[in-house]
Every structure is written in C-alpha cells, then in structure tokens.
C-alpha cells in the first residue's frame, strides 16, 4: 500500500538569497545558450543534429520564460542578460556542424553539475520543482547527445582499465606518494578526472581559437589566446600523465573551426562566455584536486587553479573596464545605512 505524501502549501513566501542567486545565474546562462545555439542552428546543415539543436534551444527558451515569470511575480528586476543584439546571424559559420553536437553535449554535461549544486540550495517548493525538472531534462539531453556522438564516431571514450580480481585496502603511505621515485598506477577516480579535464580543455581550445580568430580588439584577442595556451598546457600535462602509465592520451577528432574572420557575437557576449567558463573550470579542477590521492596530482591541480584564477581575474578586470559585467543582486549594506 503506497503512502500518500501530505500536501505542503507555501503561500506568500519570498525568494531567499539562495533562490535568487540560483534563478539569476541560470537566467544569464540560459540566455547565453539561446544566443549561441540560435547562431549555430542558423548555419547547421546536418539533418541528424538539427532536431537535437531545436530541442535544446526550445528547452533553454522555456527556462528563461519560467525564470522571468518567477521574477515578475516577485516584482524582482529582470536581469539584462543577453539578446538578439548580441548575435550576428549574417556572419559566416565559425564552427563546423559537429561542434553544435559537441556544444550541446558539453553544456548539458556541465549543466548537470551546476543544476545539482543549485537545486540543493533551494527549499521553496515551486523553485525546487523547477530546478528538479531542469536536472531531468538536462540529463535526457546529455544522453541524447552522447548517443548521437557515439553513432557518428566522434566521442573519444575514457581510458579502459582491467577489472580488479578482489577488494583491496591501502597498505602504506606510499599510496599518496608521487613527487619522487616510483609512482603507483592512477586509480579509476583519478583517471576519470584527468580524462574529463582533457575533454573540457579541448572544448575550451576550440572556443578560444574561434573567438580569437574573429576578434578585432587586441586586448580581447590576446586574452583569448592566453586562455587557449592555458588549456593547451593542461591537455599536454594530463596526456603526459596518462602516457606515463601506458595509457593513450586523448586526441581531438578535428579543430572544428572554419576560416571565418567575421565575429558572430558581440564582444560583451564572448567575454561573458569566457568569464562563466572560467568559474566552471575553477570549480571542476578543485573537485579533481579533492579526489586525487597522489601528491604529484595534487601539486599539479594546485598550480593549475592558481593559473586559471589569475586568468579569470584578467577576464573580470577587462569586463569591468568595459562595463559588461552585470552585478549579481546584493544584500543590503547595513553599515552604509547606519552611517547615513
């Protein structure tokens, strides 16, 4: 006999700071996704990818509409975000068709992580239900993208490893060693983090290469080339770690960037996209650091975090200088009020 859950009514409950932050952040990210996918879809020729791109675009548009309603119902200012003015559909294609599939895959992969964090910080039931639904549709889209990539032969699978014969326990402190002398083999968790860091950085290389190629502003061009170099350095490092344990490093299928030099997006949009990806990069490298038990891996991740944070600061400063960075909602400045 099933037990019926009691109905919980929530009326006249204002959004909390975590709910405001979650909705505000997702609103900007989904608005950015709409702009990027609209451009990719405009030039897309692959009939197999078209329905998936249409579905992804429809999902993002629906989420923006839902969040906008939350804010309107609360008399909360709608974020400026991004609009049609940030996209130039007349620009030639900057990426080949398969990048549209890669973009859908990566955005939903990162979306599952981000939405999990966001949903766990919400307790107002209508907002929690919204984020729960977002997690479900994001997971579905991720699965569809993976299946299509496998069908097309463009998914680089993670390294294989032999199954252990039995359960074992760590016997010595040498399990943590790695700076000097012999190193133990990488474990499954460490391999997973290394592989997906390589994959994510290949995606970043493609983006920053494309953006630098069409950028006229020298400061921005140099910023994107610097980001490309940081990603390439990470790829080289992680591939070397795999090769040291006789595992093949991953290689890109193609660079997926055309020869176009006409920018399809506003400078603000491009810089904002890099700004958001920097935040994600810091989060995921920190996650990899927390799971790595070899001292040399921890040292590598610590250095990478410092380098990415410095790059993120450069991006932040440039956006502030150009008045492109929309400020998240702030708590009331009580000290200022008391001094007035």
TrEMBL record:
Task: Cite the Gene3D superfamilies for this sequence.
Answer: 1.20.1260.10
InterPro entries (alphabetical): DUF3231, Ferritin-like
- Protein name as annotated: DUF3231 family protein
Organism equals: Cohnella xylanilytica
């Amino acid at each position: 006999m099933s037990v019926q859950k009691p109905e919980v009514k929530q009326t006249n409950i204002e959004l909390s700071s975590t709910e405001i932050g979650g909705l505000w952040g997702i609103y900007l990210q989904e608005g950015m996704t709409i702009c990027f996918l609209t451009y990719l879809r405009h030039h897309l020729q692959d009939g197999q990818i078209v329905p998936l791109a249409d579905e992804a675009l429809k999902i993002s548009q629906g989420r923006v509409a839902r969040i906008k309603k939350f804010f309107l119902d609360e008399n909360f200012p709608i974020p400026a975000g991004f609009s049609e003015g940030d996209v130039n559909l007349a620009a030639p294609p900057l990426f080949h068709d398969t990048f549209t599939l890669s973009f859908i895959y990566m955005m939903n992969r990162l979306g599952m992580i981000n939405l999990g964090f966001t949903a766990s910080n919400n307790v107002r039931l209508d907002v929690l239900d919204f984020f729960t639904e977002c997690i479900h549709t994001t997971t579905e889209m991720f699965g569809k993208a993976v299946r299509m990539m496998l069908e097309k032969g463009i998914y680089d699978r993670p390294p294989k490893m032999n199954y252990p014969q039995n359960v074992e326990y760590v016997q010595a402190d040498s399990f943590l060693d790695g700076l000097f002398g012999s190193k133990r083999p990488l474990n499954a968790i460490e391999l997973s983090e290394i592989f997906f860091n390589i994959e994510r950085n290949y995606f970043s290389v493609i983006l920053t290469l494309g953006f630098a190629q069409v950028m006229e502003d020298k400061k921005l061009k140099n910023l994107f080339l610097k980001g490309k170099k940081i990603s390439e350095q990470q790829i080289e490092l992680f591939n070397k770690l795999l090769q040291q344990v006789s595992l093949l490093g991953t290689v890109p299928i193609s660079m997926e960037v055309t020869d176009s030099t006409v920018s399809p997006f506003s400078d603000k949009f491009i810089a904002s996209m890099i700004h958001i990806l920097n935040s994600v990069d810091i989060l995921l490298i920190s996650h990899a650091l927390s799971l790595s038990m070899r001292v040399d891996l921890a040292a590598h991740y610590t250095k990478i975090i410092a380098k990415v944070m410095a790059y993120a600061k450069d991006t932040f400063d440039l956006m502030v200088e150009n008045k492109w960075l929309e400020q998240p909602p702030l708590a009331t400045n009580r000290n200022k009020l008391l001094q007035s």
